[in-house]
Task: structure prediction
Amino acid sequence: MRKPIIAGNWKMNNTIAETKQLIADLKPLVKDAKCDVVICTPYTDLATAVAETKGSNIKVGAENVHWAEKGAFTGEISAKMLVELGVEYVIIGHSERRQYFGETDQTVNARVKAALAAGLKVILCIGETLEEREGGKVEEVLVRQTTEAFKDIDKSELENIVIAYEPVWAIGTGKTATSQDANDTIKIVRDTMAKLYCPKCAEEKVRIQYGGSMNPKNASELMAMEQIDGGLIGGASLKAEDFSKVVNY
Ligand code: PEP
Result:
């Protein structure tokens, strides 16, 4: 019912030459994937990634986007600029942006609206920190992040937003949430979407990925869980073989 989606988040990795090589290696390995396959690259690699993936089943995404259409925002990139390049997806609200670059629930919401208005599909990241988890605040944090991110977003856009539940303590640490825990936590997010929109929409239209040290070894177990519709993959997306094994879970 919900088509799985596996997306790579390259973060600040790969030059143009490395991008060409990685995509050339990846294409034959993922060509028969049953899920949607996306690679999200640094801005400088996007044009190359779009050109090199042309005619393949790999879609290209950016890792951030500004909320304004244009203007005095030195160093920023607009949604229109991404669309012109042929980019289809954009990650918004990644925990590294929330942690290091002052991203808030409000700026996340503004970016989501701008991305959708320009025709981009969004990978919206939410997730609790270790402190929040240990303080028993998982549900409170996820409900707040989800509710704020979807503020003023119409039901008709739900198919254009993929939610990535990424517990911050599991990102780049080698620590994965157990598949049961990831599943149960994602259920909280789906229930929140059911309340914000409708149970049927949450069940049929909202795809929710797990992210956090997902790799070839744990992908099949995570993907077998009822609530998990895909993965957002950091470290393991930088090697064609590893990423393809996750894609072909
Ligand atoms: C991420 O950056 O979104 C991520 C999940 O990273 P990693 O897979 O390296 O934990």
Q: What stands out?
A: The chain has a mean pLDDT of 97. Residues 9, 166, 171-172, 211-214, 232-236 surround phosphoenolpyruvate (CB under 6 Å). The CA atoms of residues 49 and 244 lie 17 Å apart. The first helix runs from residue 16 to 30.
